[in-house]
Structures are given as structure tokens and as C-alpha cells.
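Whiteboard transcription, Tuesday session. T.W. wrote the C-alpha cells on the left side:
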């Protein structure tokens, strides 16, 4: 037995209600709705039509609805310190996010292309540059981290069978990733990264 449709949304047409439910489920589970193709495009169009209703629904959960200005991407971003649904990242995942943020920021400042695409090997190279005292994750560890980021719609990766070596795998950093760790400028990134540079292990502090 399905739950009754909320009274405050009675103005939403019957034919759009299933899509609204799917949109909210997607935003609350992964935080991102990609509207570039297929079913995602149809859901994105519906979400734009009912943007205010969706935003009002998320507000009591302390989640902001963010519309990407350049691409058909809708993101539900928790308000730091207020939302109990904030994604938790391990130390290794956080360091990978920091590396990817810096790469994305540099490409955004220096390249005209909208897509930030790199080989996975560049993550290892940047890690050794930024966090010299901490041994990078193994290929297996990094692959698992990237799978998590992919499931959160923060990156896209090339099909594994299309490359011979893991380090040659192409990865696209989506504009949703910088909003997970929203630094206003590179100096703020530098300050956060400096907190880890004196450490020598990937172990999380209890």
C-alpha cells in the first residue's frame, strides 16, 4: 500500500507525481540528479518545472537545492553543521577529494573546455606532490574510492575493460565535486590541505 500524496502538493498533476517521487529519492540517496540523457533528462525537466516545490521540501532537512548554471545537473547540498545527512568520508577519500578539487580548479581557470578529464595516474602524481609524507593508496584502494565517488555522481570513469592499465583510465571530474568541499579559492584549499601534510599515515583518527 503506497503512502497518500501530501496535501500541500495537491496542485501537482497526477502524471508528474511519480517523477517527483523519483527525483526526491535520487537527490536524497545520491545528492545529484544528472539530466544529460535518457530518463535523467526527463526527470531533470520535471524537476525544473517544480523546482520551488522540491526546494521547499528539502529546506526543513537543511539541504539546499543547487542548479548548475552550465550543465543540466541538480544537486542537493547539505548545509554544513546543520544537516544530519552529510556524507562521511574516510581520510583517504578526503585526500583524493582534495586532489581532484585542485585539478578541477586549475583546469577551470586555465582551459576553455567544460569537461575536466584526466588519467587516473595523475591522481597518484598529484598526491605525491601535495602529501609527500603519506604513502598513496594502492591501485585497489583508489579504485574502490573512485567507485564511491562515482556512485555519488561526483565523477565519471571510463569503462575498465577499455584500458590495459588502471592508471590509464580516463576520469571526468563533474562540477558537483567542488561543491562537496566548497572552497572559495585556492588559498582556502591550501589551508585545508596543510592540515594533512605533517601526517604520515592513511589511518583515520578515532
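and on the right, the sequence the group agreed on:
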Amino acid at each position: 500500500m503506497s503512502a497518500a500524496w501530501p496535501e500541500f502538493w495537491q496542485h501537482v498533476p497526477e502524471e508528474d507525481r511519480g517523477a517527483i517521487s523519483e527525483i526526491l529519492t535520487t537527490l536524497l540517496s545520491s545528492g545529484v540528479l544528472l539530466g544529460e540523457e535518457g530518463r535523467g533528462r526527463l526527470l531533470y525537466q520535471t524537476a525544473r518545472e517544480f523546482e520551488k516545490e522540491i526546494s521547499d521540501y528539502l529546506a526543513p532537512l537543511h539541504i539546499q537545492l543547487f542548479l548548475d548554471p552550465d550543465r543540466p545537473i541538480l544537486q542537493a547540498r547539505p548545509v554544513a553543521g546543520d544537516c544530519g545527512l552529510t556524507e562521511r568520508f574516510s581520510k583517504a577519500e578526503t585526500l583524493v577529494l582534495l586532489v581532484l578539487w585542485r585539478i578541477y580548479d586549475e583546469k577551470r581557470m586555465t582551459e576553455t573546455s567544460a569537461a575536466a578529464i584526466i588519467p587516473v595516474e595523475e591522481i597518484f602524481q598529484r598526491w605525491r606532490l601535495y602529501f609527500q609524507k603519506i604513502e598513496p593508496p594502492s591501485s585497489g584502494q583508489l579504485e574502490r574510492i573512485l567507485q564511491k565517488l562515482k556512485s555519488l555522481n561526483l565523477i565519471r570513469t571510463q569503462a575498465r575493460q577499455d584500458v590495459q592499465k588502471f592508471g590509464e583510465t580516463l576520469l571526468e571530474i563533474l562540477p558537483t565535486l567542488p561543491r562537496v568541499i566548497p572552497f572559495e579559492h585556492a588559498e582556502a584549499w591550501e589551508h585545508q590541505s596543510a592540515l594533512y601534510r605533517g601526517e604520515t599515515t592513511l589511518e583515520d583518527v578515532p
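Someone added at the bottom: Confidence is low (pLDDT under 50) at residues 82-86.
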